[in-house]
Specification:
The complex is a heterodimer of chains A (342) and B (221).
Chain A lengths: L4 E2 L5 H10 L6 H10 L14 H10 E2 L7 E4 L5 E8 L2 E10 L2 E5 L3 E3 L14 E4 L2 H9 L9 E4 L9 H12 L11 E5 L3 H10 L3 E5 L5 H7 L8 H9 L9 E7 L7 H10 L6 E6 L13 H13 L3 E5 L12 H9 L1
Parallel strand pairs in A: 1-2, 6-9, 9-10, 10-11, 11-12, 12-13, 13-14
Antiparallel strand pairs in A: 3-4, 4-5, 5-6, 7-8
Helix pairs in contact in A: 1-2, 4-5
Chain B lengths: L9 E10 L4 E7 L9 E5 L7 E4 L8 E7 L6 H6 L6 E4 L13 E6 L4 H8 L6 E7 L8 H8 L3 E5 L8 E2 L2 H7 L8 E6 L1 H13 L7 E5 L2
Parallel strand pairs in B: 7-8, 7-11, 8-9, 9-10, 11-12
Antiparallel strand pairs in B: 1-2, 1-6, 2-5, 3-4, 3-6
Classes of the chains: A alpha/beta (342), B alpha/beta (221).
């Protein structure tokens, strides 16, 4: 079993410490960092501007840590679902979603999830571990369509704020000049509302925030999302409203519409009341059914009516296009199938 | 509810710490707040470190706050908590959270130390119409059984997964639920344990006819 430490995911400061420990010259740290994040190599041998003796020294203890997807499924609409294996029987998914000039990658932050939301397939896998920052960024670096990406959303498997440090570090790698140099405004992290971690994220990152809302009523939301017991929505919103998002940083709310559950005029009215005074957007999402679920998605007419009603209340509301329905669209389905197959 | 979400930690003096099973401990400290049975608190060893959340096991009228915890060997907090002695200090929040009890009919379904919120509800007098199903690996995993057994009688079901023990069901909580007939939609079904246990049990209850609107879960995050 390979126990070498992985270089991919380390900061320049950490790379410098490694280089120093191997008696490499100071400037080598910058070279190694460049090879990691600015170039396409899969092994330390590819670091051709390093002296051979330094490459050998690095190889003794380290490896790059990049790995390609183990599987891809492509939808008729161009959406691709990539599967990455991050350990024995451990799989995570990334969804590449092209849309005209834009292309979004939805990345995972954990293997499985421990939040137990009623509508989520990933939760049924249980929690198997956090992804490292390197494993998160690998989903982007190893993506064949990497150069076409215009935005990244942390909305795949796992709760990003249950793996805060690795998520923040991955954002640092993506946005730093020494990394990929992305604008943080092209990155959105989605949470179910773990308040302490959300506060830390707002303070330590410039990326956009999305919150899974799904019902404005506490009693209803706690049936869908056990986290409501611990971090109730009013407290989540109080925290968000106390934060100055400035002109550029975006806050949005995800809202899956369930038939006869959360798609009524009463819900519109309460959403408008709760979000009053907050410059935000609501993304309505059609429910992708999962096995054995007691939930049913709202029909197109109800989705449209809900959207129109919210817009009339001056809440900018959009409906997220359903993509990749022919390739196990609900997050967690593909990896669960792979996990149970092996 | 106040904004006691990992914030506002206060230094409290430990009254006692006791080991009650191979890996399980109970500690008590003097209370400084009112709470509702089933609520949680944040605990840390110092004011400047990230706290962890635990359910309160005490009753609403008890003098002290009692916390039941398992020692996670690779963890930072629980090995240290298990070494605390009377007179030592820790940092804690007031109670918060919405996993609170009911005076009506309810099934309490717990795994391991997930029994704590139900101990709190039970000790607070919520006993009428309650069924308690507790899953544990070994006979000593059934914490507080000396309190539950005389009062709940046949409505207290222990599911022991690793050993065959007289008076307990051999298997997991889900095995027990699978072994019984359809379930009434009338009671509220409270689940407390790991995410795997809560998700699996919730799915099973739904299959057995319980509307999801009658199920509330608290997960060890």
């Amino acid at each position: 079993m390979d126990t070498k430490d992985k270089l991919f995911g380390k900061t320049p400061e950490e790379v410098a410490i490694i280089c120093h420990s191997l008696d490499m010259p100071k400037y080598a740290a910058g070279q190694v960092t460049d090879w990691l994040y600015k170039k396409n190599i899969l092994s330390i041998d590819g670091m051709t501007n390093l002296a051979a003796k330094y490459r050998e020294a690095l190889k003794e203890k380290y490896e790059i840590g990049l790995y390609p997807p183990s599987k891809v499924e492509e939808s008729v609409d161009g959406t691709k679902k990539y599967l990455y294996q991050s350990g024995i029987k451990k799989f995570v998914e990334s969804a590449y979603i092209p849309d005209g000039e834009r292309a979004t990658l939805c990345v995972s932050s954990q293997v499985g999830c421990k939040m137990g939301c009623l509508f989520c397939m990933t939760g049924k896998q249980g929690f198997q571990g956090n992804l490292t920052a390197g494993e998160i960024v690998n989903q982007i670096h190893s993506l064949p369509e990497r150069d076409k990406l215009t935005s990244i959303v942390y909305m795949g498997m796992g709760e990003p704020f249950d793996n805060l440090e690795n998520v923040l570090r991955s954002i640092e790698i993506l946005t730093s000049a020494w990394g990929y140099g992305w604008s943080p405004r092209r990155i959105t992290v989605s949470t179910i509302g773990i308040i302490p971690a959300m506060q830390a994220f707002l303070e330590r990152s410039e990326a956009n925030l999305a919150v899974s809302l799904h019902s404005p009523f506490e009693d209803e939301r706690r049936m869908l999302m056990p986290v409501e017991q611990v971090y109730p929505l009013p407290e989540v919103l109080k925290t968000i409203k106390s934060w100055d998002f400035g002109r550029q940083r975006r806050i949005s709310f995800e809202y899956i519409l369930f038939k006869n559950l959360n798609d009524t005029p009463r819900h519109v009215k309460e959403l408008a009341r709760l979000l009053n005074g907050l410059k935000c957007r609501i993304n309505l999402i059609r429910f992708h059914p999962i096995p054995d679920t007691p939930l049913e998605g709202s029909d197109d007419q109800a989705v449209q009516a809900f959207k129109d009603a919210l817009n009339k209340k001056d809440i900018l509301t959009t409906v997220r296009a359903s993509r990749g329905e022919d390739i196990w669209a609900a997050c967690g389905l593909l990896s669960t199938r792979e996990m149970t197959r092996k | 509810m106040s904004s006691n979400l990992n914030g506002d930690l206060r230094r409290v003096r430990i009254e006692w710490v006791r080991q009650i099973a191979e890996n399980a401990y109970v500690l008590e400290y003097q209370r400084f707040f009112d709470f509702e049975a089933g609520q949680i608190i944040s605990i840390a060893l110092s004011a400047d470190e990230s706290p962890r959340m635990y359910s309160i096991a005490s009753g609403e009228r008890d003098e002290n706050i009692q916390v039941l915890f398992n020692v996670v060997n690779e963890g930072h907090l629980t090995p240290a908590l298990s070494c605390l002695k009377a007179g030592d200090y820790l940092w804690t929040s007031a109670g918060f959270g919405k996993f609170t009890g009911t005076t009506g009919k309810a099934w309490w379904i717990a795994q391991g130390t997930g029994i704590a919120p139900f101990a709190s509800m039970f000790r607070s007098g919520q006993r009428e119409g309650k069924v308690l199903i507790h899953g544990g690996r070994y006979p000593d995993s059934f914490y507080y059984s000396d309190e539950f057994e005389p009062v709940l009688g046949e409505n207290y079901i222990r599911c022991c997964s690793r050993e065959i023990v007289s008076g307990t069901f051999h298997g997991r909580v889900t095995d027990y639920l699978n072994s019984i007939g359809p379930l009434s939609a009338e009671p509220l079904y409270y689940l407390c344990g790991s995410s795997e246990m809560v998700v699996e049990t919730r799915d099973l209850l739904i299959k057995k006819g319980v509307p999801f609107t009658r199920i509330v879960g608290e997960i060890y995050f």
